[in-house]
Amino acid sequence: MADRDVEILIPANDVANPEVSIVIPAMNERITISDFVDWCKEGMAKAGVVGEVLIVDSSTDETPRIALEHGARVLKTPKRGLGRAYIDAIPYIRGKYVLMGDADCTYDFREITAFVVKFRAGHEFVMGSRFKGYIEPDSMPKLHQYFGTPFTTWILNSLYRTSFSDIHCGMRGISREALERIELESQSWEYASEMVLKSVCLGLRTTEVPVRFLKDREGRLSHMKRGGWLEPWRAGWINLRAMLLYGADTFLLKPGAVALAIGSALTVPVTFGPVSLGPVVLSLYWMLAGLTLAVVGLQSFFLGCIVQTLYGYSPEASRRWTRFFPYDRGMIASGVLLAAGFALVLPLIMDYASLGLRLPVVHARSHYMAVTGLLMLAASFINFCSTLVLHAVTLRAKRRPEKA
Predict the structure, then answer these.
(1) pLDDT per residue over 145-158, tens digit each?
(2) Rounded to two decimals, what is the model's pTM?
(3) How far apart are CA 103 and CA 55, in angstroms?
(4) How far is CA 68 from CA 45, 57, 132, 216, in A?
(5) From CA 142, how far away is CA 133, in angstroms rounded?
(6) Domains in the chain, start-ordered, CATH in brackets?
């Protein structure tokens, strides 16, 4: 449903049935907007593609009028952030493929053939790469070029096992169908990282193409500079936040499973007394460390399952977890763990009572049993609560359509 706060303006020479939509947010770009729209038309002609230019405009100057005169569609919107501009544009995009970028002529939209070729070859998400292409001298701040962009790209590649070379490149392409499946939520700069992360989570067919990055025109001040010296750091922080939020399961699922396995290995074998492993003796203190690891790991693992179900990126993931943790079996397992835990804790309670509510200085066998019992009691509670939440989330979580 179209937003009541937006208005679409149609040029006199509008095209019918475009294959490609070049969708560009713009705000007060009167210096460059005419050349930019002309560049887009030149690029589409060279690529042999019928396309439209859709400017998502929140300007207070003559930018929308100039864009309209040069043959672009103009979607007038309130100033609500870069990511929100793309969200607002989705109902008005007519092309099968979408190209994104900036209206400041820093990305060379005269060269879009590589994007069109990749789209027609079946790719759904095509990232531009300035580092594989050309960066004009003095076009990018040194802090961004040699630290910020390489570092955050390395973080994302390390966390998600990807191989992007330039995750902050503004010139990128995505199929209209994939853009709808991604369901953009970010309102500001972090939309860029959200798109990359969700392309990975949804398993989109992804590739990179080299692009040219040029200096700002004389007299134009970039939006990053308009925001002050703190703006690049703020943009970096919110992009990092997006990496964490949209891939929270990465920090929960596998790390949680590893912590649970290590914690259990330190606790369960020592249930009935110390265990020697060469020069190392696993004693009560090792058990307490294992108990902590196991509880944290089990809780993290379940949270990862719940997060994957909430994200809804993969219907198969949701089905996998509900099959692995069916409600009836989960409740039975919680009951068994509860009974076993009480059984192992009971000897310590009896020893404590028989000694007049004083514990012996020497660690007795009941102490070791009680630690394992406490682990089982905690596991019973976590399993019970998490199974309930997992199945409740399954009932309410939104579902993305599966790929054909």
Answers:
(1) 888 888 888 888 88
(2) 0.75
(3) 8
(4) 19, 11, 34, 23
(5) 17
(6) 7-246 (3.90.550.10), 249-396 (no CATH)
